Amino acid sequence: MNLTDLENSWINQFQQPLIIAGPCSAESEQQMLETAKRIKATHAQVPIFRAGIWKPRTKPNGFEGVGVIGLNWLKKVKEEYGFKTATEVANAHHVDAALKADVDILWIGARSTVNPFTVQEIAEALKGTEKIVLVKNPVNPDLALWIGALERLLGQNIKNLGAIHRGFSTYQKTKYRNNPNWQIALDFKSQFPNIPILIDPSHICGNRTGLAGITQEALNVGYQGAIIESHYNPDEAWSDASQQITPEVLGEMISNLKVRSTGLAGFDDEMGRHRTLISDLDFQVIELLSQRMRISEKIGKLKKENDIAIFQPDRWKVITEYAAQKASETGMSQDFIEKVFKAIHEESIEVQNNIMINK
Ligand code: PEP
Ligand code: MN
């Protein structure tokens, strides 16, 4: 059986968009119950409550999750407020504990998806489960790893599968915590239109302001839902404080989402898909130009300190020749590329001129 053969009818038990919400981490019974109560009180369609029990942290000595005790709190959330529950599992021990505590939905985190040994261990521990298992994209932009992880699960006869797009790490800091890199997720979606995909705007944005925009964008290209971090007191959260929102803000955000169509049909909107890709590329072009200008500034300072003229004809010749060569290699008009580079160069000279003038 291949991933393309899966029906994944599990998604049909939920109204779309399917929203999974709850705190980044379980911190205390009170925090879990209070957050659940307030999400419930918004009357937003949130059938699944999330909370991280074991937290993968980039550096040691941070809060690494409360561990198994938090599973009891998830159970209470289910009993008292009727949510289904979801948590991240990163090894066989987590799987055993989560299955024993009857967590409904398990997800594999971005740092685990990168590691085939880890994914294999989790898949074997889950062998044959009827639970819904969601796989986050790996932290690095590698579509094959993401697909590979789902194949390992299917290899252990796990068939209720889904994907979560949480963005990709970049060394250069951008406005995103994790760059959405829509192309990869949309390639995934084109290859596996039968696998439900959810957006994780919280880990893409890393802040509270961008969440609604990213979520709407995902719905526009046919995603089935979102997993969003919500905490009753976000500023005091023990992990990912800057991106968590109150249940009330979450409720408001959900009520403003426009569902363009239900099911997978929205994805047929080719125009929306292309526009998303264009916006993504425009964002990257602007980021790159801004990085280029910052380097240009540094060169301006060096030139100033060493009394060197801003315009260096030899260097400009190297740049234009390289651009012309790349234009022909990539099948673009040399004329066009020359215009673009002249504009960039002019701006660069302007930036350096300002440095020279400013004492
Ligand atoms: C999380 O969902 O809290 C989490 C740790 O996410 P990710 O694996 O995407 O970093
Ligand atoms: Mn988090």
From TrEMBL:
The keyword Transferase applies. Its EC number is 5.4.99.5. It comes from Chryseobacterium indoltheticum. Residues 265-356 form the Chorismate mutase domain. Gene3D superfamilies: Aldolase class I, Chorismate mutase. This is chorismate mutase. Pfam families: CM_2, DAHP_synth_1. Keywords: Transferase. InterPro entries: Aldolase_TIM (IPR013785), Chorismate_II_sf (IPR036263), Class-I_DAHP_synthase (IPR052899), CM_dom_sf (IPR036979), CM_II_prokaryot (IPR002701), DAHP1/KDSA (IPR006218). One of its GO terms (biological process) is chorismate metabolic process.
